[in-house]
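Good morning C.,

I know you're traveling, so I'll keep this short. The sequence:
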Amino acid sequence: MIRWAVLICYLLVMVGIGFYCSKKTKNVSDFVLGGRSIGPWFSAFAFGTSYFSAVVFIGYAGQFGWKYGISATWIGLGNALIGSLLAWMVLGRRTRTMTKHLDCSTMPEFFEKRYNSKSLKIAASLIVFIFLIPYTASVYNGLSRLFESSLGIPYIWCIIIMAVFTAIYVIAGGFHATALNDFIQGMIMLAGIIAVVGSVVNVQGGFGAAMDKLALIPDDSGNTGTLNTVFGPYPADLLGVVILTSLGTWGLPQMIQKFYSISDDTAIKRGTIISTVFAVIVSGGCYFLGGFGRLFDTPAIHNADGSVVYDAIVPSM
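The tokens, ready to paste straight into the viewer:
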């Protein structure tokens, strides 16, 4: 009953923020970029919550934690240093300056004005439209499976409810509403990952006991004593995942656009620090949590053929 009350209150807050922020939305710039007046905290949390969504919390944490063990934590730290810190340092001020100078609100529009090419704008728009569909689907899939397992809401209804409420606050309040909701979601993510990691480690008898248990479990190659090591059973593969999940975000339009809306250079400097700390806690915590996934191996996380359902690992924990 308490979980339902919390969920309903949260959904009502989302909608309320949307209508509250509608008063601040007077033109297209306000709707798309928040009038380029978003502060460092809201910008950093908006960047972080776009980066570390349900995909990281559910699928990625389960999949890579299962394969690499505790060394999967390096993925989270790589995301923080390369995907957040370095991205803000290299792209933050430059992106804000160029997009403000060219007076563009989206990445396709930036390409058009920067290179004086209408065809490049069309191509970029198509790429964004096509490839954000599976990305968005993966986010909805992760959240829906989480709600289904914790609240018993049918999977399809989870998707419909999330889509409806998201559409309401985004259409009503634009970027202001999105940034404020992202900030609230970010605070929940920070508190949640700390609480869940503490709970999981405590259930296993503490960090030392959990690591000892992990050492006894064979990895995918059948070797024991690797899942609790610093670099894990497959260090070369792990490095590839770190680079893939860290550098790939540099080109995601929903993340780069956060630089378009930030208020000034001072806010970028502060946002760099805030975003990095956020990433260390959330992403590092997620993959650290996923590293203990094999300690919670149950039939519930396997298909009929015995294969692992990675989306089910963290919710089962």
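Safe travels,
E.
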